[in-house]
């Protein structure tokens, strides 16, 4: 399917009404009227100086919308939506690429996108269209009820190379890692309850590097934004599940702690009933091997000096004890405790 851009026409009003009343579109574009009426669509078309319809180049079917808003000399913000039936067909990516080529030809120098932190699908579109993530604008978005939310900022410059923007942490092969006994899958919004129940356990929260108050609402947001952190290259958070019955066992994460030196850190927690069966060591081996596959040179981990169970996990996963770092970790009582540092090196090429 080829995508082309054209001006909006009055006969497109019905498609616009249907698309703009879609719950997902309404959720992520809170500035849209709700409900969205035909009068709204006709007004949009009349004002459409900076909007383009993305259509099927062969059939003429309207697939979505892409547009821009000038934000100063040589700078514009861009945005898009896709009709529900056309999602997953690379429509938004193609439309962004076409619009970018048009605007850069007209001497535009910088285009940028602001995307809700929970909207990983839209962030994937931006990356595929060559937009690089710049950071997070905290509280820059406003929902219909007046609450604020964070926006991930992506940009593309006129002289950026063609093709998708590089990703420090790629997706998992086939969407998961498994050794036949356990399965690791990306943490998502549906994991909020089990993750919250695990992290509030005293022997889990007490071992956390960052001690911060945790609520179900905050945990739900963290899980919903996990994919965004993965796309940003900050961390890959995964649930650990038993392959036989998909029972939740715990969590493990790869933290990309030092991109310059290609070093990443792992951390993990298991539910009490899952401990003592070798699941944590299996998960550590899977994540560590994946880290080496995507180019890490060193994988590291650390434990408190009295956490002998975690030290046995790391040894079973092939890590070696490097050093004791005095007073490196915040302790549960507000003090500072020693960190026993472990590492595993990238296997030599054969």
Concise summary:
The protein is α+β, with helices and mostly antiparallel strands. It is built from eleven helices and 15 strands. Helix 1 crosses helix 3 (38-46) and helix 6 (192-199) crosses helix 8.
Give an overview of the whole structure.
This protein is α+β, with helices and mostly antiparallel strands and 350 residues long. It has two domains: 155 residues, Aminopeptidase (3-Layer(aba) Sandwich); 173 residues, Aminopeptidase (3-Layer(aba) Sandwich). 28% of the residues lie in helices and 33% in strands. The chain has eleven helices and 15 strands. The strands form two sheets. Strands 8-9-10-11-12-13-15-14 form an eight-stranded mixed beta sheet, sandwiched between helices. A seven-stranded mixed beta sheet has the order 1-2-3-4-5-7-6, sandwiched between helices. Helix 1 crosses helix 3 and helix 6 packs across helix 8.
Task: Write the topology of this structure.
Layout: E1 3-6, H1 13-20, H2 23-28, H3 38-46, E2 51-56, E3 62-70, E4 75-82, H4 91-105, E5 110-116, H5 120-128, E6 132-142, E7 148-157, E8 177-178, E9 182-186, H6 192-199, H7 202-205, H8 216-224, H9 226-231, E10 235-242, E11 248-258, E12 263-270, H10 279-293, E13 298-304, H11 308-316, E14 320-330, E15 336-345
Helix pairs in contact: 1-3, 6-8
């Amino acid at each position: 399917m080829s995508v082309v851009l054209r001006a909006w026409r009055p006969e497109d009003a019905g498609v616009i009404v249907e698309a703009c009343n879609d719950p997902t579109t309404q959720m992520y574009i809170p500035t849209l009227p709700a409900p969205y009426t035909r009068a709204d669509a006709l007004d949009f078309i009349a004002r459409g100086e900076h909007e383009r319809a993305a259509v099927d180049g062969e059939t003429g079917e309207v697939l979505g919308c892409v547009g821009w808003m000038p934000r100063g000399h040589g700078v514009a913000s861009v945005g898009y939506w896709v009709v529900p039936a056309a999602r997953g067909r690379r429509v938004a990516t193609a439309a962004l690429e076409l619009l970018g080529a048009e605007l850069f030809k007209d001497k535009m120098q910088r285009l940028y996108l602001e995307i809700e932190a929970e909207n990983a699908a839209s962030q994937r579109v931006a990356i595929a269209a060559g937009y690089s993530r710049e950071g997070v604008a905290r509280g820059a978005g406003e929902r219909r009820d007046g609450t604020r939310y964070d926006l991930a900022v992506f940009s593309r410059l006129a002289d950026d190379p063609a093709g998708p923007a590089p990703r420090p942490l790629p997706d998992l092969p086939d969407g998961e890692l498994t050794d036949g006994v356990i399965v690791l899958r990306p943490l998502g919004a549906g994991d909020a309850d089990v993750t919250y129940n695990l992290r509030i356990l005293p022997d889990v929260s007490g071992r956390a590097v960052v001690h911060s108050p945790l609520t179900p609402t905050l945990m739900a947001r963290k899980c919903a934004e996990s994919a965004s952190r993965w796309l940003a290259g900050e961390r890959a958070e995964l649930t650990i599940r038993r392959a036989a019955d998909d029972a939740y066992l715990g969590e493990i994460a790869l933290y990309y702690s030092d991109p310059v030196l290609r070093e990443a850190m792992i951390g993990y927690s298991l539910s009490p009933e899952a401990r003592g069966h070798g699941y944590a060591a299996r998960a550590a081996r899977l994540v560590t091997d994946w880290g080496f596959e995507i180019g890490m040179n060193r994988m590291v981990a650390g434990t408190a000096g009295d956490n002998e169970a975690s030290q046995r996990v790391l040894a079973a996963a092939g890590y070696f004890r490097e050093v004791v770092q005095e007073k490196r970790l915040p302790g549960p009582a507000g003090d500072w405790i020693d960190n026993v540092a472990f590492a595993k090196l990238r296997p030599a090429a054969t």
